Amino acid sequence: MEHNSLSVLKQYWGFDEFRPLQENIVHSVLQGRDTLALMPTGGGKSICFQVPAMIKEGICIVISPLIALMKDQVEHLRARGIEALAIFSGMSYREVDIALDNCVFGKIKFLYLAPERLYSELVRERIRYMKVNLFAIDEAHCISQWGYDFRPSYLQLNQLRELHPGIPVLALTATATSRVIEDIQKQLHFKFPNVLSKSFARTNLGYMAFEEEDKMGRMLRIIKKMGGSGIVYVRNRRETQEVARILINHGVPADYYHAGLPMKDREQRQNAWMSNKIRVIVATNAFGMGIDKSDVRFVIHLDIPDSLEAYYQEAGRAGRDNKKAFPVLLYQQDDRDRLWTILESSFPAVSFIQKVYHCLGNYYQIAYGAGSGATFDFDVVDFCKKYEIDLLQTISALKFLERDGWLALSEAVYIPSRFKFEVDYQELYKFQVQSAKYDSLIKIILRTYGGVFDLYVPINEFEFAKKLGVPFDVIVELLSGMEKQQISSYIKSTDKPQLQFLQSRVDYKNLYIDIDFIQERKQIKEEQLKAIYHYLDTKDCRSIALLGYFGEDNAEPCGECDLCLVRKHKDGQAAKIRQEIRVLLLEKALTLHELIDSISVGRENGKIRILRELIDEGEVRVEAEMYRWIGR
């Protein structure tokens, strides 16, 4: 078994050996055991399900909420000659139908699914007929209401066990408290508890947190002192531009990144940072998932994250090359107060949730009793502007509507245009002869894409326009024209989130909302907020505070965080003061004023404190207001 896993690892990924913990996880899966794997960000989680899935006959179904990451992993697998597909929100019914058929009858080894896709009867029924060898659940903490990023769509995952009861589950996450670890296994119906984990300790990271009035000035000093590349996290899109401009004005090559940018701009900025063409990327928390840049020397937060789990993940993007790196959190009292304000806005009244649901029905012009299964592009900012409702409360309301099974909402992600011929080759040839204006475009499509008669393929209208020397709009018109004549199917690109109605529209007065769940979630968020305050206020060690939150209670001081460094400095200074007092008083007795003035290091109150310690220890004696060294 070990030989097989290593040979597969070498054949497809080119590695001679596994990273720590990977091999244990792979062997646990190959033994058919349900497994919960806790691995830090960048620890190589995908290998843990990809290797055993390649060894075993059948298909591995991977559940992930991160569509961009799913698409990226599918591309990487295909580049290695491994057949893989992804099904997520925004795909048409026919696209999904064809993809699922390929998983049942074709040679697909990996099917990546967004969790909300399990609401679909079509998807569930087709999975029943697949020869599944493993269920891999990425970001598994999302299934627990005790977790920091609970996603209601993850509650559908227990249906996988019903479809294939004997197939093992591998749950993967980078962060989980002991309560979340227990809940993940319960929600996924583990046959026996089985947790494999690495310590959450990152010994090369020096965590720092400073209450700072001049955050911009402190940020600039940190960046200039640290060297190397880094990330600056801020709370909103406006701040990304403002902070990037400040950095550029001070000679730091920087750019900004947020989910509202066009996909092309996001890719360009991300690639520029990855290749060190720019040194610092200023971003919202939309940046970082799935990015593995090893030489990040600092991650600076200019706002307090919503939870320690989120902070650990974002801070953990520093120092993946195991060299010294520094996550730094800069905050003010207003930032602390703002967290409580945000907390209150995150739990709107039931009447507000009902209002949001009612407005959604009107927004998409859905009749009462209709709309079940309907999917739409969703621009939450436009929606809130139209109905003059608060953005943050609306986002929270949507999550509770999702929790209670009324709708499903996916993340914003770029989905390219897709195309498929709906006639056979002979019918297409007749169409070309009869409709000459389509001939050149059809020839380019046939030369460029294989399998276009069987599968939807991603296309680029700009490339077609460039090759044919015509405007973009002409290409779109030609593609739409072929679809109208039922020669092909053409689905335009989108980069908006997808909102799906899971049930027919009801009157908002008949809308069931689980009030008890809302109150329970609020209590959980309050606990997470208190944990952040504890981290900021600890006097011991930042690393100990973090590890204690994740259940590691016997950690030693890291020696690298701001608190440990201050303590080291004080300890070193104290030792030097002690030594100077000894030397001075061995030479002769001195008055308090003479002694304090003669000590070359430290402040007056520190010198006096150490002198008192030496008196208490019996090393120094006071006689007639003169201080003498007695020693032991």
TrEMBL record:
Residues 26-194 form the Helicase ATP-binding domain. Residues 218-361 form the Helicase C-terminal domain. Pfam families: DEAD (PF00270), Helicase_C (PF00271), RecQ_Zn_bind (PF16124). Its EC number is 5.6.2.4. InterPro entries: DEAD/DEAH_box_helicase_dom (IPR011545), DNA_helicase_ATP-dep_RecQ (IPR004589), Helicase_ATP-bd (IPR014001), Helicase_C-like (IPR001650), P-loop_NTPase (IPR027417), RecQ_Zn-bd (IPR032284), WH-like_DNA-bd_sf (IPR036388). One of its GO terms (cellular component) is replisome. It is an enzyme of class 5 (isomerase). One of its GO terms (molecular function) is metal ion binding. It comes from the Bacteria. One of its GO terms (biological process) is DNA repair. It catalyses: Couples ATP hydrolysis with the unwinding of duplex DNA by translocating in the 3'-5' direction. Transmembrane segments: none annotated. Keywords: ATP-binding, DNA-binding, Helicase, Hydrolase, Isomerase, Metal-binding, Nucleotide-binding. The keyword DNA-binding applies. Coiled coil: none annotated. The keyword Cell inner membrane does not apply. PANTHER family: ATP-DEPENDENT DNA HELICASE Q1, DNA HELICASE RECQ FAMILY MEMBER. Belongs to the helicase family. RecQ subfamily. This is ATP-dependent DNA helicase RecQ. The lineage of its organism: Bacteria, Pseudomonadati, Bacteroidota, Sphingobacteriia, Sphingobacteriales.
